Amino acid sequence: MKYKLLGRSGLKVSELCLGSMGFGTEAGWGADKDTSFAIMDAFANAGGNFIDTANIYKLGTSEKIIGEYVSNHDRDHFVLATKYTLLDNRTNVNASGNNRKNMMRSVEDSLKRLKTDFLDVLYLHIWDNITPIDEVLRGLDDLIRQGKVNYAAISDTPAWVVAKGNTLAELMGWSQFIALQVEYSMIARTAERELIPMAKHFGMTVTPWAPLAGGALTGKYLRGDQGRIKPESNRLNDNSVKITKAVVEVADEMGVSPSHVALQWTRQQGFSSIPVVGATKVSQLEDNLKSVEITLSDEHLQKLNAVSAISLGFPGDFFNEDAVKTNSFGGFYDKVEKRI
């Protein structure tokens, strides 16, 4: 694999990120330790160095497995990203949320499980609608100044919160968020309304989770393999089936697997993108790794973009009206006056 800079930083990471939510066998599914080690071996042997986990994944087992693996390899080769926010201690009312107390406690526990003195990237996992963003940023900046965290990032948070946070951090001289993790795939493109334009503005790298839409874009649900997916999931409706069929058609034309097409699509959307690819089998990872070897043609991109297109809503669609597209600003203002 080649390496990319993560956001507006000098941190070099592989063009695919290994997702480890499936490391551990809690809840009756996932990869055991030996399989997880084999997956990380395959990833590292392919040049991968960017590994994503969270304090809550498999109730901490994911971090423990990664910690044991990395402690027996070159720690400095790997870029370890973990997250805090979600509940991992039911005896403490402050063991969840974005507050500083939970942040500090969670980081200390993650450092122990990962068997490391520092985290390369710490994500806020999900916005809690309670904690002030300045409390979050000051806490993250303190951790960075202490040497326990190298870079701050954020996940599953409204665009206006992230924008306010990075603007405040720039004003105060605090560390800014360099990466944004959100759900993004051809079946889930709503991040294009606000989140992705915001990330582009601030020079943040987007790390899409579920870039294969839980496996839907591999075509396996077309073959009748429902797996653990819920019947009411938007990954099984008529629109997702139409999108998946288009992905399969493009894959057949290119002589590659549908997963290659779906992953590469997220990397050719005009912004810095490093998809998070999860795996519970070595064969799954090996197939996903091949996606970096292909490039979608303009024709294929147009086909996939068209079949998966969403409404941007207001003001996105308002800005994209014909008058604006043709640079007819007089016509644009005429329309505005009529609406007023």
Task: Give a written overview of the molecule.
With 340 residues, the protein is an alpha/beta fold. The protein has two domains: 3-309, NADP-dependent oxidoreductase domain (TIM Barrel, Alpha-Beta Barrel); 310-340, no CATH class. The chain has 13 helices and ten strands. The strands form two sheets. The protein has an eight-stranded parallel sheet, covered by helices on one side. A two-stranded antiparallel ribbon has the order 1-2. Helix 1 (33-45) packs parallel to helix 9 (282-289), helix 5 packs parallel to helix 6 and helix 7 crosses helix 8. The N and C termini lie far apart (53 Å). It holds the Pfam family Aldo_ket_red. This is Aldo/keto reductase. Keywords: Oxidoreductase. Residues 15-307 form the NADP-dependent oxidoreductase domain.
